Amino acid sequence: MRANPLSILVFLCGAMLALIAIYAWRHRATRGSKMFSIFVISMTVYLTGYSLELASLDLTGMLFWSKVAYLGIFSFPSLFLLFALQYTGQEQWLTRRNILLIFLIPILLLIAKYSDDYFHLVYSSTWVDTSGLIPLLGFTRGPIYPFALY
Description:
It is flat and about 50 Å long. A hairpin with a 6-residue loop joins strand 1 and strand 2. The protein has a two-stranded antiparallel ribbon with strand order 1-2. It is built from seven helices and two strands; from the N terminus they run H-H-H-H-H-H-H-E-E. By secondary structure, it is mainly alpha-helical. It has helices at residues 5-26, 33-55, 59-73, 76-87, 96-102, 104-114, 116-119; strands at 123-129, 136-141. Helices cover 63% and strands 9% of the residues.
């Protein structure tokens, strides 16, 4: 791994989000702050994983940190919806069944991402793209990649 200005900037954004999550958690008596804190932690996981992916020089490291980043990115929409429901006082919608349904697509996409080495559903092929200023993860989109844009 080699730090570069872009990876450092993304990492600093993740660190700032971690501080925001801590601040929100300390004020958890406020409506919605617990879920907001969890939502911001997922963004922190994404940005930290992505910054380390940007700092990686080899394909193995890039793919590993990409998987870490996906832990956070797939949970964004679901956690934001849970936060919005909690913040607006709509907790009656937060049943176990509804929460499971909200996380169904992210869980399936995460399973596909973590089994991508075998099935190539998210990325059909991967390589290190060295055409720019820093090495980046290059990939060809797999058959379910468009669903990741949900």
